[in-house]
Amino acid sequence: MKRNQILTIGSIVLLFLFIGYANGHLNAYYIRILNNTAIFLMFAASYNLINGVTGQFSLEPNGFAAIGAYTAAILTLTPAQKEAMFIITPMVPWLQHIHMSFFPALIVAGIVTAMVGFILGFPVFRVRGDYLAIVTLGFGLTIRVVSNNTMSITNGPLGLKGIANYTNLWWSWGFAIAAMIVIMRLINSEFGRAMKAIRDDEDAAIAMGINTFKIKMIAFVTSAFFEGIAGGLLAHLITTISPTLFTFFLTFNLLIIIVIGGLGSMTGTAIATVLVVWGSEWLRIVEQPMHIFSLTIPGIPGMRMVIFSILLIIIMIFAREGIMGQKEFSWDSLFKLFKTKKVANK
Amino acid sequence: MLKVRDLHVYYGVIHAVKGITFDVPEGKIVTLIGANGAGKSSTLKAVAGLVKPKGHIQFLGHEMVGRSAHKIARRGAALVPEGRHVFVNLTILENLRMGGFNKKRSELEPLYEKAFEMFPILKERANQKAGTLSGGEQQMLALARALMSEPSLLMLDEPSLGLAPKIVSEVFDIVKMLNSKGMTVLLVEQNAAQALKIAHYAYVLENGTITLEGNAKELLNNEDVRKSYLGEM
User: Fold this and answer.
1) Pairing between strand B201-206 and B29-33?
2) Cβ distance of B86 and A209 shorter than 8 Å
3) Where are the domains of chain B?
4) B64 touches chain A (CB under 8 A)
5) Theoretical Cys-Cys bridge with B49: which of A26, A199, A320, B69, CB 3.0 to 4.6 Å?
6) Chain A contacts of B99, Cβ < 8 Å?
7) Under CATH, domain B1-76+153-233 is a member of which superfamily?
8) Domain ranges for chain A
9) What is the ipTM of this complex?
């Protein structure tokens, strides 16, 4: 028990040492990818909590990401910036004058998103299965339409520009690791076991006296909180947000990550996030014009997604459970692996 | 202990249970028998709160209709669902832990001991996933899990479903033993012969209404029951 804790803390320290090194030595492109990895890890881990661990197939993260991103951005933009930006319809006065520094803005973004998640949970968890997926998909679409049309709050399709570039590796990885720790602790608690019980058999869980609505709500609100913060981090990384950024495509990407990693496995999610985020950068080569012998292929934008879709199909055929299935990586299993190898060598 | 008055269950336009009235007195085994689709499981689900019925269900003197299922379970009515429904991806120990979800941590240890004493097979496999158990073992686990909440009323939905005859009689022996220690049991069964042998009182359900009731021993000798449910010519 002790040994494992030391190893976990040790590897987190190692990760931050690497981030310290990366901050000074790597070029902007790599730093951007590392930031993306952290933000997507946060998105995917929170999404996996509701989809994988609790087994409630839902499609709302793009909606939560939008709420988090807009809330954080509106809070950190200065009143002067906002006045200059809202050229068609002026902003609601009290929103225009509000101004916060980065950290409180992120926390407020998380809380606002969690509150929306809480309110959404009441109608959403009246239905199960396919219906839940459709209702949450509808929510994601609604948020996009709303952000397009509430000109005096979101500046509509013009979007928000000039958001300060606050997100650096410390912020993104700090929040990502914190989110992972909170979610892992939640999974290993009494509530986490109840979430897994609901995934396995909701009716039996009810018959055991488990308030399944409450448990689902805990998963959903936690998920919304971290997705809101991740949205805020994303806004301060790319510095420009508009409704088109938060389409179903974002949810789809997260879905690919959690399915590849294994529904219900957080360590699997971490591995898959690295694979998908880094993989999609690496796969940019297939979108470039290519010369194979005398054959010239012009660059095909979107070719990466074709490859990802093929990858997803292959995984669905050969490894239906994803990389980790429902299992988690543990130090014990790693040591066991080495031990059996040693025995085999003898 | 349990008083059901004029209970109706609807699924959309289908009227599954048409105003039945029955009692489960404390310390007795009462069984509802009947063919497929007679409304036995619907009745049990209504008592457990899994479907919303019309009528009156009094449990320990409190009205249960309109209460949510987890609150009914907390009052002390434990349901062993039809087809076992164990949590296949949780270990046996975790399954038991879920059964005692509303118990304090300190109360659990003696309950585990009790469960393992009654079902030694579960102790051997405590850290195995429930999905790896055989059908009979899963039924034992479902029973042990229901007992973790220390219920005052145990409701069993077709415990013999899909089990080998030897396992079926083991399950019924355990139910009988529990009853001899004071457990009140509401048993829903298609296997009328087995159910009537251990029960004190029985109701025969047909198309959502009670057509016959009486002491289990009398029903066992009743001509109609023998013809319809015990397979005699």
Assistant:
1) parallel
2) no
3) 1-76+153-233, 83-150
4) no
5) B69
6) 208
7) P-loop containing nucleotide triphosphate hydrolases (3.40.50.300)
8) 3-247
9) 0.86
